[in-house]
Write a structure and sequence with these properties.
The strands form two sheets. The chain has a six-stranded parallel sheet, sandwiched between helices. It has two domains: 181 residues, NAD(P)-binding Rossmann-like Domain (Rossmann fold, 3-Layer(aba) Sandwich), CATH 3.40.50; 123 residues, N-(1-d-carboxylethyl)-l-norvaline Dehydrogenase, domain 2 (Orthogonal Bundle). The protein is an alpha/beta fold. It is built from 14 helices and nine strands. The structure holds nicotinamide-adenine-dinucleotide. The site of nicotinamide-adenine-dinucleotide (NAD) has 27 residues, from helix 2, helix 5, strand 7 and helix 7. It catalyses: 3-hydroxy-2-methylpropanoate + NAD(+) = 2-methyl-3-oxopropanoate + NADH + H(+). Keywords: Branched-chain amino acid catabolism, NAD, Oxidoreductase.
């Protein structure tokens, strides 16, 4: 506890040393909660592109991540919003106009919003508070949180929208993410400029929850395409084909897909693909397994039959158990299949 307090003082000192504001402003305040692989980079881009009259408050249960980000912002060029560090999600969001969350799983999103809604009150003027959740969770959980926000901030004083993203850590770092937005039409013009500080494209998919539905449908397809590509490549190579020749044929034919063209699972076929660097980096097999699980859950709720999902889930689960596959890019299923490397 003592060391936490000490760390906390250090964080505050780091903020002061940069001339970061530590006094609260009533309006034009942003809050960013969840500074993991994605959120850290997104918050950095957001802060850098806001004006010095804006404030960004940061919160993560991992205090070291906050400290590191504050220090990195210190070395950033002049300009950008003032930064405040918070001890709880509640404290971070109580005066915020816009709260952005980027958390791992539905339970983390629910628990963060429990804390946020404990502290946040309705703005006294005609404005409303905006909550943008960029986490990949299931649409039902997202709608549940949206309902809690509407109940806590009635009369349209609070709006919760879903904006899951694609582009990975590379896109988050470069500020080139694509966001799939689930929000009422009337809010799009308010949300878009905020998201465009962290990405390059916002695809409005429909009302709240539809951003997640679009994201999960896409990632379901990706989960299957990835396994099928690994199988087809393994098959062709075992029949005696050169891997590059086979990929070249597929990529101008009807089997062409993102795993065959960009993220080919066979090492050496695409030099920039994770397979060519021992499947390191890229989209972790654990995240793929998680998205597949969420897609299956949402499919069940919609009574949509998925013929391939159960087997695909087993493949990712089995592959993740193997030491040489665990924690690597999801194209590592090629290795799990026993493909030649
Ligand atoms: P991550 O696990 O790296 O980071 C999550 C962060 O949330 C951690 O820093 C953790 O300490 C923090 N956290 C957890 N519970 C918290 C709470 N209650 N309050 C405050 N902070 C809390 O995850 P990530 O890779 O940044 O992914 C975030 C979301 O984005 C996930 O839903 C993921 O599926 C999705 N996503 C990830 C990628 C990717 O390539 N990593 C790509 C697209 C989408």
């Amino acid at each position: 506890m003592k060391s936490n307090t000490r760390l906390w003082s250090q964080l505050q000192r780091a903020a002061h040393a940069r001339g970061f504001s530590t006094t609260s402003r009533r309006l034009d305040n942003y809050t960013f909660i969840g500074l993991g692989q994605m959120g850290y980079q997104m918050a950095r881009n957001l802060q850098a592109k806001l004006s010095p009259s804006d404030t960004v408050r940061l919160f993560d249960i991992n205090k070291a991540a906050m400290q590191k980000l504050a220090e990195e912002m210190k070395t950033q060029q002049a300009g950008g919003a003032a930064v405040q560090l918070s001890q709880t999600a509640e404290e971070a969001s109580k005066d915020a106009d816009t709260v952005i969350t980027c958390l791992p799983e539905p339970q983390h999103v629910k628990s963060a919003y429990e804390s946020i809604l404990r502290g946040v009150g309705a703005p006294k003027d005609t404005s409303s508070r905006l909550f943008i959740d960029c986490s990949t969770i299931d649409p039902s959980s997202s709608r549940e949180v949206a309902g809690a926000v509407s109940s806590a901030l009635p009369d349209a004083k609070g709006h919760f929208v879903d904006a899951p993203m694609s582009g990975g850590v590379v896109g988050a770092t470069a500020g080139t993410l694509t966001f799939m937005l689930g929000a009422p039409e009337s809010l799009v013009s308010r949300i878009e400029p905020i998201l465009l500080r962290m990405g390059k494209r916002v695809l409005h998919c429909g009302p709240q929850g539809t951003g997640l539905s679009a994201k999960l449908a896409n990632n379901y397809l990706l989960a299957i395409n990835n396994i099928a590509t690994a199988e087809a490549m393994n098959l062709g190579i075992r029949w005696g084909l050169d891997p590059k020749v086979l990929a070249g044929v597929i990529n101008v034919s009807t089997g062409k897909c993102w795993p065959s063209e960009v993220n080919n699972p066979v090492p050496g076929v695409v030099e920039t693909a994770p397979s060519s660097r021992d499947y390191k980096g890229g989209f972790g097999i654990g995240l793929m397994r998680k998205d597949l699980r969420l897609a299956m859950l949402a499919a069940q709720e919609a009574d949509a039959k998925l013929a391939l999902a159960d087997r695909a889930k087993e493949v990712y689960e089995e592959a993740e158990k193997e030491e040489q596959c665990k924690g690597r890019d999801f194209s590592v299923v090629y290795r799990w299949l026993g493909g030649k490397e």
